[in-house]
Amino acid sequence: METKKEIFAEAKGEGLDVKVLKEILKLRKQDKDERDEQESLLEVYLRAMDAPAPLAQAA
């Protein structure tokens, strides 16, 4: 655990975004099907959030 902290501290010192690095590591642990499913769900949710609310359309 201490080694990870040191590595992330070094990466941050080099100007890298540690939050993004952690997300990359999380994605790499998943298998391809799991990543694809998560990406598809994210896309669906993003589209749903961009769509106007039904009440706003009626007004």
Number of helices: 4
How many β-strand runs? 0
N- to C-terminal distance: 55 Å
| Largest sheet features | none
- Assembly state: single chain
Count of the separate structural domains: 1
Q: Give the overall shape.
A: elongated
* SSE string, helices as H and strands as E: HHHH
Q: In angstroms, what is the radius of gyration?
A: 18 Å
Nearest-integer average pLDDT: 88
Weakly predicted, low-confidence segments: none
- Helicity, in percent? over 70%
Strand content: under 5%
Q: What structural category do the secondary elements indicate? A: mainly alpha
Plain-language structure description:
The protein is mainly α and 59 residues long. It has helices spanning 2-13, 18-29, 32-50, 54-58. It has one domain. The chain has four helices and no strands. The chain starts with a helix and ends with a helix.
